[in-house]
Amino acid sequence: MNKDLKIIATPDMRSARDRRKKPIELVYPEIEVSHALREFARGKTFYLRTYGCQANVRDSENLAGLLEYAGFTYTNILEKADVIFLNTCAIRENAEDKVFGEIGSLKALKVENPNLIIGLGGCMPQQEHVVTSVKTKYPQVDIVFGTHNIHKILDLMTTVIEEKTRVIDVESIQGSVIETPLVRRLDDKKAYVNIIYGCDKFCTYCIVPYTRGRERSRTKADIIAECQILIDAGYQEITLLGQNVNAYGKDRPAEGDFADLLREVAKLGIPRLRFVTSHPWDFTSQMIDVIASYPNIMKAIHLPVQSGSDEILRRMGRRYSREHYLKLVAEMRAKIPDIAITTDIIVGFPGETKEQFEETLTLVDAVHYDGAFTFIYSPRMGTPAAKMIDDVTAEEKHERYERLIQHTEASTTASSLKMVGGTYAVLVDGVSKRNKNRLSGYTENGKLVHFVGEPALVGQIVQVKIIDSKVYSLQGEYVRA
Ligand code: 5AD
Ligand code: SF4
Predict the structure, then answer these.
(1) Where are the alpha helices (DSSP H) in 245-392?
(2) pLDDT of 418-440, one tens digit each?
(3) 423 DSSP β-pair partners
């Protein structure tokens, strides 16, 4: 195991919070592979595990692109890999616990193969306490990097190989827009395209503005170029990505706003266009109009509400009221009658009273969500909410969580049940592991459908009649064209 440690940069929350507006640098890095790394990579494999959100999945595609460029080949067998990367998530404590467990179990592999390189990247190492822990308690980790310097990973690997040292390079900066030229897509029909990085909202419970830096948009030309490459390669679905897609262009006014961008991408003619995530605060009527007018923009909006109580929303720093949210939903439903609305909800925010929690339940019932992700509040070190007094017991939080799920599941079930008997377009994702003729895919409104059909249909958009519904999936019958 490498005992020496080279520290290039370590994170600190204070600089991560800095939002003094400076011009955002656009970086088109030139990627070079050192002789030492190319020799090392010959005949060697890498394994890459991704935790968390779509932004991490897309980052992993760049990481994989870089590793392949250096000469490594991908393996899905952890035990056989010569290089292991974990691309991590910091959103809740349980996400972090899983990763620490995994690092712990990698120690044995490192003993068996001392040349194994283990890298830890993503949102977790953007936090001081994680880096401190890895430095002292997990000597099996050779490279610690963050969300801002994925494009430098080959240089960091060279350092490990040439200098026989561990290396830590995690910058806490507002961030640039880095156009990494190398990408290895994980799917050949559905793709993620970043449009805006970072977050400036600083919701009081959330670690993301610290781990991913300032809101910064890519240029429209770079986004369109990436989408066009995907369309030319036969992709069926593009999902535009950002912590807040609605904030697109605010830092780059010459590019127009999210409504303009959505319209331009839709016009390229990709069969299915999606976007995540939308913040209710800056969702404009123009954006709703664009979604309504292009058939290839999927009628599905993920609109996290977090709470139904004005007081909790205020303390969360969400910058909208319950009334504003309900008005926005009403406008969406009026202009787009078949719109599917999904959400994220947190229960047990510090000091949440029974009454405030009940307001979340009445909001869930009023909106008739098509799906919901529900979470118990998890304190994140360094965020304002972590310092708030919390007098709600863990037991009470769990009880509220269970009650919330009853309401969100009732709503999701009702929305699925309405589809039974109808025929819907499904983009076929894949075949079941157990039965080659059992296929699954997603409807335009984002529901998972299982049905019987030939494996040749994978990657196509087909018509499926819905015959039954469960809470989290639908059962269908393939309708031959
Ligand atoms: N605790 C629990 N849930 C959280 N989320 C973000 N931060 C926290 C936290 N500290 C949830 C929010 C967000 C989703 C991605 O994760 O609901 O929308
Ligand atoms: Fe976190 Fe709020 Fe930003 Fe979403 S909008 S990433 S919840 S700070």
Answers:
(1) 258-267, 285-293, 310-316, 322-335, 354-367
(2) 999 999 999 999 998 888 889 99
(3) 465
Q: Which atom of ligand 2 is nearest to the CA of 202?
A: 8
* Ordered structural domains, the chain, with CATH: 4-169 (3.40.50.12160), 180-417 (3.80.30.20), 423-479 (2.40.50.140)
- Helix, strand, or coil (residue 430): strand
> Which residue's CA is the closest to the ligand 1 atom numbered 17?
344
Distance 45 CA to ligand 2 centre (A): 36
CA quadruple 298, 302, 303, 307: dihedral sign: positive
Dihedrals phi, psi of 126, to nearest 5 degrees? -75, -5
CA of 199 to the centre of ligand 2 (A): 6
Q: Is the pLDDT of residue 222 over 90?
A: yes
pLDDT tens-place string over residues 157-183: 999 999 999 999 999 999 999 999 899
Segment 450-467 mean pLDDT: 96
206 ligand 1 Cβ < 6 A:
yes
Distance 204 CA to ligand 2 centre (A): 9
